From TrEMBL, chains A, B:
Keyword presence, Plastid: no
Entry annotated with the keyword DNA-binding: yes
Swiss-Prot/TrEMBL keywords: DNA-binding, Transcription, Transcription regulation
Domain HTH tetR-type: 5-65
Protein name in the entry: TetR/AcrR family transcriptional regulator
Ranges of the DNA-binding region feature: 28-47
InterPro entries: Homeodomain-like_sf, HTH-type_TetR-like_transc_reg, HTH_TetR, MT1864/Rv1816-like_C, Tet_transcr_reg_TetR-rel_C_sf
SUPFAM superfamilies: Homeodomain-like (SSF46689), Tetracyclin repressor-like, C-terminal domain (SSF48498)
Amino acid sequence: MPRGRLTAADVVRAGAELADEIGYQDLAMGALAQRLGVRAPSLYKHVDGLDDLRRRIAVLAMTELGEVVRAAIQGRAGTDALASFARAFGAYITAHPGRYTATIGAEVSGPGDELYDASARVLESMAAILRGYGVEEDEMVHALRTLRCLFHGYAALHTANGFQWSGDTDESFDWMIGFVDRGLRVRPPGPEGVQDRR
Amino acid sequence: MPRGRLTAADVVRAGAELADEIGYQDLAMGALAQRLGVRAPSLYKHVDGLDDLRRRIAVLAMTELGEVVRAAIQGRAGTDALASFARAFGAYITAHPGRYTATIGAEVSGPGDELYDASARVLESMAAILRGYGVEEDEMVHALRTLRCLFHGYAALHTANGFQWSGDTDESFDWMIGFVDRGLRVRPPGPEGVQDRR
DNA sequence: CCATAAAGCTAATCCGATTAGCCGAGCGCC
DNA sequence: GGCGCTCGGCTAATCGGATTAGCTTTATGG
């Protein structure tokens, strides 16, 4: 029954593109409206203000990221899956720094929340990788969080240019992945007492 | 030659406290002025606007963090140093979420930049730890960045409440540290070819 | 004591987000 | 084949916070 031109999805997509181009910090209703050939107030017919727009961009980003990494690990396992995941992840944040930045500060409530669910899908891919390494269920949560910290930290530092990771960044990224790979492949044998208290 | 009451340091300190209390997002000139018993425009005599204030808070945070972790690893080495560092780091970001958030988005240029230098001091502590593990110089950069990603990611997710890490967060944190510790203690023997290309 | 520069203040400006309320266009239905 | 309804856009206005301009006060140091 609608009629017109823009849809909420259009606005969010354009917002994401704009954020990627000019930087998340400078994302503004006015600029977005202009890009869409519309006046700022009109956007409020589609999104519920700037905060809502930001959150929707975060959801979009996390959703896209989830799809990308899911595809990347398809049919792979172990080292192969991890490397492929990492490559896909790195490529995404490099191609879409604005989008990813949107996810960094976003508040996440709990199940049912779109952003939570989208994040959960990404985590599910990570979990699949870890299962492939034979990580026990009781360690899964911890290993998952460790991976998350690593990738999120990388993304955050990378998108914020957080330490002229220019040039040899990729090399460090690969080293990092190699480090995790080794760590995960060493332990499966069994929970032998490698000291671990506090 | 000066005269009065406030100093730039006072303003920054109060801003940091305010950010810790009400959240970095809500840090505003007006609110800060009020807390200092002064009108908003007066703050401009001490800091060069909101962006400058934010950056100074980031510098303060990174500086404090540097001191805290340096103290934590004093006289320790290996696993002990890593654990102590981690504990100090975790305690700092928990006690000062606003401050740390300020560092997350801040732009870092290069040597000479206060924030860069403060970050470098934190990294130096990390490097000291890694040296204690016998990490080779040619891997140092990569190992350093890996640690940085891990801790930064942890901090970012933690301060943003990025996945109800309520309760058992500490346990995961310890697991993460244990994982790194194992990884670092395994390799020193020599760069045997554990696959590492691309 | 007086000249001065720093530190505050008030009033004013700017800008971007947001709200209020009006308007034209397609569409379902009679 | 026209009528009213709803949607999407628009203009004008409001709001709020940051920032600027320019005045005032005060302590200090000569």
